Amino acid sequence: MSNTVQLVQEQDRILSVDFFRGFTMLLLVGEFSELFTSLIDPAFKGTAIYFIGNQLHHQAWSGLHFWDLIQPFFMFIVGVAMPFSFNKRWDKGESWNKSLYHVVKRSLLLLFIGWALYCIEPGTITFHFTNVLAQLSVTYLIAFLIMRKAIKWQLLVSFALILATDLLYRFWTVDGFNQAFTPGKNFGTWFDMAVQGSLNGDNWVAFNAIPTAAHTIWGVLVGMILLNGWSKPKKVKILLLIGVSAVIIGFALSAYIPIIKRICTSSFIIVSGGWAIIGMAVSYWLIDVLMVRKSLLIFTVVGMNPLFIYLFAHIGGNRLLEGVFIPFTTALFSWNGMLTVHIATSLMVWFSLWYVCYFLYKRKIFIKL
Questions:
Q1: Quick check: 307 and 47 in contact, CB under 8 A?
Q2: Cα(150)–Cα(172) distance, rounded to whole angstroms?
Q3: How many angstroms separate the CA atoms of 70 and 132, rounded?
Q4: What is the DSSP string of 251-267?
Q5: Confidence band (pLDDT; 50, 70, 90) for 97?
Q6: Pick from 11, 103, 198, 316: most CB atoms within 10 A?
Q7: What is the C-alpha separation between 66 and 303, in angstroms, rounded?
Q8: Inter-axis angle of helices 70-91 and 266-284, nearest 10
Q9: pTM of the entire predicted model
């Protein structure tokens, strides 16, 4: 994390980008409040609360839950912001080589942080590559390397990565790891054993960084559309058309290629990419077309300090806040059972994480990685 706290102005920003990023990050840090776990308590079985809680957890294997879209959303929105950021740099005369140096340095930092967050296991230090920041270090670099190429070449690279991954899973011949879509018996599992010497747990695989680079590349292309001189309604229509088409194609492919988030199958990448584009279109329509802003500030403020609040929650900020609130929530709600205490505590922790972002936002403090 940079030691420099940067003060920036909001002028000339497309605020829907901050909103969409904030929506994604608020959900990500919400996971650290442990509220989502409370929602699938057996006491809620058969209720709407349990259904919502289930959607806020990953699908066990094949299929799609809402929570499976959050990491693709994050990868995607990083790509959307890239044309804005680098166009400013290049307009000021920065060379491509200097920008590349910045990207490589940032990618290495993301990789280190992503590794450090999960490196310690009982009695040993391990290397795991499934954390969103570690994976982003790869997708961000790939997207940058081709972002000056023609749109057709960026699309070609994104689909080539997806196709290459699909072919590896289908035609990998090593015994015991040649069952494309079977948990623990596929190419991704073999890759983890070969590179890391261990598995990541719950059938997540490190190779996901390759196909999911498509999400960041597609984000770059969407960012270019948002910067285009077309009318705002036209941009919304184009994004919705692309997004809905991708969702339809992805679900159609699922008859032949199962939608599996844990190994990022091609159908999953396309479906989740489509939902990300739809989400961006709706955000742009609400924020930058209809100008609905004040009521959506709750998300925008998180989008202005996304990585800071993610790291703050991840390294223990949630536990610190929990320790502050639990004596009070226990005193107030223990009469109704510990589940109520846990839910009340989680809501207070989640709100406090948001308030940290609001505090920084009001003082125009934006901490950059």
A1: no
A2: 33
A3: 10
A4: HHHTTTS--BGGGT-HH
A5: very high
A6: 103
A7: 20
A8: 60
A9: 0.92
